[in-house]
Amino acid sequence: MKKIITSFLLFVSMFAFSQETLNVMSYNLFKFPTSLPQNRELILQRILDDYQPDLFMVCELVSENAADLILNTSLQNQPDIFARANFVEDLSKPEDPLQTMVFYNTRKLTLVAQQTLPTVYRDINHYSFMVNVDAENPIHLEVFVAHLKSSTGPANRQMRYDMVEAVTDELQNLTEPDTFVLFGGDFNFYNSTEIGYQQILNPENAIKLIDPIDAPGDWQDDAEFSYLHTQSTRVSNAGFGGFANAGASGGMDDRFDFIMMSENFNTSTRFSYVPDSYQAYGNNGDCLNKDVKDESCTGVFSQALRNDLYSMSDHLPVVMQIQISEPLAAPSFTENKPFLWFESTNVTDKEVIVGIDASKTSVPNMQLFVFNTLGQLVETIPVNSQSSVVLDVQKLSSGLYFIKTDAGNSTLKFIKK
């Protein structure tokens, strides 16, 4: 009997250990950290302490210092160690260089690569993760973070569509079997009939994406969709600075912020969406055209949290949970990192820096080759024993180029502006 009980407890313990949750949050921080009030990194800290995200996608970082402020202050109370992606300047819109970024729990995720997708308006960042499961069959998670063009009108809708298409085109290049995809950010969609929204859901995409909340309709200023609204947290922007630095006003009436996911999150037994976990965080569902902190907006989200959300940004974050049904292993970047990767932006008019894991090849005197879209070799760069190589691209014509090597099948793409 004692052996039976011991075996049962061991089974229960192993089962409980295998059930990990990946908490995901996407948040437009509104010109962080320069907008008022001051010391918003401490307000953000309280919000993050409340939800404890494992994958934190953000829009509107002003600078790399802003990213460090979040990592070193806003996330310092989290129970696990966090890291962030490399910060790259937004080159699609240099006159207003607000950037996106991801921060992640290193116990649960390993960042193995990142790239920039240039668009007609603002860069979209693409991050490749491995979930830290102890299995020969890895879990690949591809994360896209975007801040689409704002405002109404056919020109702005078309621009949002064109930006979305940069992501759906990139889905064709994700060739790992059963790849999982998250596409989050501030999308500025007003209704479900928008061409950009429909392009995300296009069943012809290389990887089918879905909206975790199946709620088609005209979201703007409609009480039926109050629970989904993420902007604006403020009826009035008085006291938050002048003009564009004050953010949007008008109260809670728009669903602008999203996390879209690949359909396999609903069918996988390894890495699955937790039903009903998608929320406009801080929205109690009864706050149409009011401040999010309005005392009449009662519900599961506390007054203290809603006060912080009101002060932090003119947007609310959106959140969702993903269940990891396997035990986690210690992360190993060396084990998972690719053969070649960019250590700089891949959209530039000056140079790109390529990282190289020489331990993955035995080829002596390895070389990098740069090809144009016609397949013509335009440059050869010796690698020798270097762990990174700087490519001066100033003499190249504007356009798309491919970097290949004589030591493997890896290919990188970059754009000379």
Helix content: 10-25%
Largest sheet composition: 7 strands, mixed
Instruction: Tell me, rounded to a whole number, the average pLDDT.
Output: 90
Share of residues in strands: 25-35%
How is this structure best described in words?
With 417 residues, the protein is α+β, with helices and mostly antiparallel strands. Helix content is 18%, strand content 29%. The chain has seven helices and 21 strands. It has helices at residues 2-18, 40-51, 64-74, 154-170, 195-200, 303-312, 333-336; strands spanning 20-32, 55-61, 82-84, 99-105, 109-117, 124-131, 139-147, 180-186, 209-210, 257-262, 271-273, 279-280, 318-324, 340-342, 347-348, 351-356, 367-372, 377-382, 388-392, 399-405, 412-416. The strands form four sheets. Strands 1, 2, 3, 4, 11, 12 and 13 form a seven-stranded mixed sheet that branches. It has a six-stranded mixed sheet with strand order 5-6-7-8-10-9. Strand 20 and strand 21 form a beta hairpin. Helix 2 (40-51) crosses helix 6 (303-312). It is globular and about 70 Å long. The relative contact order is 0.13.
